[in-house]
Specification:
The structure is a single chain. The protein is of the alpha+beta class and about 80 residues long. The protein has one domain (about 5-80). The chain has 3 helices and 2 strands, in the order αβαβα. The chain is globular.
């Protein structure tokens, strides 16, 4: 299963989810990469991400947003300062 497929399956668990208002998506990395393990966390602290990487897990599902200004991230990624 790819990261994008996993994201779609997780979003499908809540049929009432308004896809135009959610920030649930693949934020970094290749969305077409196969998932070899999933770490789940409340907050994606850098220490949590480092631990996931040390375990060889290539996908992290976090409850809280990765970036404070997550609605505008797409603009920042396309046009970094």
């Amino acid at each position: 299963m790819t990261a994008l497929e996993l994201c779609s399956k997780l979003n499908a668990l809540w049929p009432e989810l308004d896809m135009t208002r959610t920030v649930d998506r693949v934020i970094a990395g290749d969305p077409n990469q196969d998932v070899n393990g999933v770490a789940v966390c409340w907050m994606p602290y850098s220490s949590t991400l480092r631990e996931a990487a040390s375990l060889g897990v290539n996908t992290v599902v976090a409850h809280e947003p990765t970036f404070f200004d997550h609605w505008e991230l797409k603009k920042e990624v396309q046009h970094p300062r």
